TrEMBL record:
Keywords: Membrane, Transmembrane, Transmembrane helix. Pfam families: Ion_trans. GO terms for biological process: calcium ion transport. Gene3D superfamilies: 1.10.287.70. It comes from the Eukaryota. Residues 82-328 form the Ion transport domain. InterPro entries: Ion_trans_dom, Ryanodine_IP3_receptor. It is a multi-pass membrane protein. The lineage of its organism: Eukaryota, Metazoa, Chordata, Craniata, Vertebrata. It comes from Gulo gulo. It is found in: Membrane. This is Ion transport domain-containing protein. Its main location: membrane. One of its GO terms (molecular function) is monoatomic ion channel activity. GO terms for cellular component: membrane.
Amino acid sequence: MSFWSSISFNLAVLMNLLVAFFYPFKGVRGGTLEPHWSGLLWTAMLISLAIVIALPKPHGIRALIASTILRLIFSVGLQPTLFLLGAFNVCNKIIFLMSFVGNCGTFTRGYRAMVLDVEFLYHLLYLLICAMGLFVHEFFYSLLLFDLVYREETLLNVIKSVTRNGRSIILTAVLALILVYLFSIVGYLFFKDDFILEVDRLPNETALPEAGESLASEFLYSDVCRVETGENCSSPAPKEELVLAEETEQDKEHTCETLLMCIVTVLSHGLRSGGGVGDVLRKPSKEEPLFAARVIYDLLFFFMVIIIVLNLIFGVIIDTFADLRSEKQKKEEILKTTCFICGLERDKFDNKTVTFEEHIKEEHNMWHYLCFIVLVKVKDSTEYTGPESYVAEMIKERNLDWFPRMRAMSLVSSDSEGEQNELRNLQEKLESTMKLVTNLSGQLSELKDQMTEQRKQKQRIGLLGHPPHMNVNPQQPA
């Protein structure tokens, strides 16, 4: 489908180039090419065809298409070639739309879902414009170039920068209209005569008296030079000063005779002029009584409307575009540094057996998950395995619990290996501690035996120093 969409866009660009360079097509006809140029085109087309057959590469296909279109233009003419290109674009878009409807199931969801499907309506409108360019007028092909906005996200963000904060922009524009209305009222009341603008009138042919007109009309136009008959062509021209004065008067007109005309003038010329409405009004003299009021009027319009209000609108648009750009950069950064399936970040795979790139390409490849979902959807339910039945039920319930959120087998295995190493180290430490405790226990028992032996010896020495048959009474005299 993306290939068919690219074909439609390239055809739209090509048809608009032909319309831009050769419209109107009256002087462009087929069969007007010189023989050597015609032979060169045939040679280029045959060489391109041979290259496409031998090496089917995109550049060879483009060269073949370009040479074929040029050959058609100079063989059958520009309009028939444009008609053929338009018909091919319509057929291509019909195939695209049928594929889009089949993939999305647009008609199976009911008419309400079909009407609310913006993407389907967009492609339907695209097909309608192709048909109008083919059967109504070639200028409708110019609308197809807006497909570039739909294809490029950057241009889409430019449009969103205006539509996202549309309410703020509209309210600011309403404030600008209110200010324009107030300045128009002030201009109508006090500076009505200053609204004199230069205009460029369309040139009108001099009306000459027809045969049978009155003598008065003949007298009035007696000095007009008649080119057909050569009469009065040698009569003296009017004075240059009078002619310049009349032209000057005719090139200026009052544009504030009514309040509506004042509003239109201030809105049209005031907002489009860099210095405000003062740039297009009459330049007053310093000796006029309303000179100071006119200066204040021009400065207030410049500061309030041109500087403040218009820059507010531009600021809202620029800030919105900056926010959209930062959001896009943040999304791209998340996609680069975070696994789409499990949500684990890149730093979780530092100093692990599996790198982050290997993880997102082999272990958690999102296209593998998509293929698995498609397999579950197209496979007969009676042939499901246990995991497939579980996943099919989860997909039907729109439940994503079957995704491995915040976990991966590679990290689990590496973590288990780390735990085993820690257990091994702890076991070794425990064994060494047990050996030490055993040694200490042996030493303590030996020390205990020694202490026991020493006590026994002391008791023996005490018994030998004080025999039991001699009772010495210290209070009895010798």
